[in-house]
Amino acid sequence: MTKLSQHFILFLLIYFVFTFCVCAQSSLYDFLTPLKIEAFYRFDFKDDNSDNTFYINSFVLQIGADNKSKFSSHEKLLSDEFNMSSNVSKDHLNYTIDDNSAAPLNLQSELFRENDQIIHYNRVGFDIYSYTESIATILDWKISNEKKRIEGYVCQKATCSYGNKTYEAWFTKQVPIAEGPYKFKGLPGLIVKLYDLDKDYVFTLVYLKKLASNKRIIVEKSYQNSTTINKNAYHSILTKRIKNISLNLPTELGCNRYGLHNH
C-alpha cells in the first residue's frame, strides 16, 4: 500500500469519526419552533449569604413562533449550540458580559413557554425533573401610566407581587411581544428592565436581535424522560439536594451564586 493510499484511508477514518460525533451530538436535541428574536439580559443579584456582594451573569430569552419561547443561561446556550454543530455563532461569542468570575452561575435549569404555560426543567444529579404552571396564576400585573426611556426604548411601568416581593417591570410597546426574563411575561410589550423594590435582583435588556435565518429553538431530547411532579415536590427535591452540597435555597426568586432556582 502506497503512502498516498495510507493518507487517504486515514483521512476517510477521521472524516467518518468526525461526522459520527457531530450526528450523535445533533441527535441529542429536537427542534421546537423557528427562532424569531433573541434577547440577552444582564442579571445583577445579591448573594443571600453575602454582605451586600453583587454578582453578575447573563441569560438569553429566545422567542419563537406560535407563542413559544425558551429562557436559559448564556453559558447553556453556547454549550447547546456547540453540541449541535461543533460550532458557535459569532454573534453569541461576541456578546459578552463581565461576569463575576468568583461567582459563576452554572445553570442547568431551563424554562419553556407555550402560550400561557411555563414548563420548568432542572437536572438534579443524574435525574431530570419538570413541572408546569400558568402565567396567569403566578403574575397579576398592574400597569401604570408612568413612562421613561430605558436602553433607548420608551418604556411603561408595571408591577406585580411574586415570592413575597414586589417587582417593577418596564416594558416597551416598540417590541410588542408579551415576553420577558425568567417567568415574568404577559405584558403588552417586551420587558426591558425588571427588579424587586430592594433591587436584590435586576434583569436588564442589553442586546436584542431579530433573526431572519432558518435557526430554531432547540430542546434536549432527554427532557422527554423527565419526572413530572408538582411545584412543592419539585422544590422539596431541590432543597434536599442543595443541602447535601451545603448550599442554601432562598425563598423568593431563588438566587445564589451557584444558580437561579425555579420558584
From TrEMBL:
Please give one Pfam family short name. Porph_ging
UniProt xrefs under InterPro entries: GLPGLI (IPR005901)
The record ties this protein, via NCBIfam families, to: GLPGLI
Q: Which domain of life is it from?
A: Bacteria
User: Protein name, please?
Assistant: GLPGLI family protein
